[in-house]
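Query structure, 203 tokens:
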């Protein structure tokens, strides 16, 4: 009768073969995992590079041609002439025309020996006033538009003020000080032409 018994060495050999196959299987799975991760990453990068970019909605301010902004904003004082008697008052306004802006730094000079300036009132163009004062023969005014209203920027009155005659003088200038003025849009100074005024004060 044939002997079909399995001795201890056979068992050890079989177990060794199973362990070897298990090890090979684990290595194979690891290699397959690494290859699949690499392939997946390359496919993701390709799909990202080929994706159609989603256009952002830009306001009129953001789409303005940067090359056309410089020198396109005009500031003017109106009326540009006036006649007062000593003790009388009249109002002047600073108007902005051309390219509207999101911020302004304004300085107006006058002769404090001829007129006094008071009653500085902001116009409708700027929401927040950063500076508004009269000092040493100059009017200082700075304003900005709130970021959520940039699409609504417009031309119009920047500020108004009252001039009162205090001594006689002929054609006393009320001057926009160009080197101290900035009109800003998209980080660019758009300041161009300035139109000044003069006032005559009589006794």
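Result returned for the query:
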């Amino acid at each position: 009768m044939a002997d079909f018994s399995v001795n201890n060495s056979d068992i050890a050999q079989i177990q060794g073969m199973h362990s070897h196959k298990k090890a090979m299987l684990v290595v194979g799975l690891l290699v397959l995992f690494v290859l699949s991760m690499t392939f997946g990453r390359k496919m993701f990068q390709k799909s990202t590079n080929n994706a159609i970019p989603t256009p952002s909605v830009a306001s009129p301010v953001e789409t303005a041609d940067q090359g056309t902004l410089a020198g396109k904003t005009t500031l003017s004082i109106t009326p540009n002439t006036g006649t007062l008697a000593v003790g009388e008052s009249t109002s002047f306004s600073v108007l902005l025309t051309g390219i509207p802006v999101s911020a302004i730094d304004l300085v107006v000079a006058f002769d404090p020996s001829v007129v006094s300036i008071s009653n500085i009132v902001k116009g409708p163009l700027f929401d927040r006033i950063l500076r508004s004062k009269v000092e040493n023969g100059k009017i200082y005014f700075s304003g900005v538009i709130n970021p959520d209203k940039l699409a609504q920027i417009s031309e119009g009155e920047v500020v108004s003020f009252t001039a009162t005659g205090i001594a006689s003088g002929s054609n006393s200038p009320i001057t926009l000080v160009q080197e101290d003025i900035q009109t800003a849009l998209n980080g660019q100074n758009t300041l161009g032409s300035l139109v000044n005024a003069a006032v005559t004060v009589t006794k």
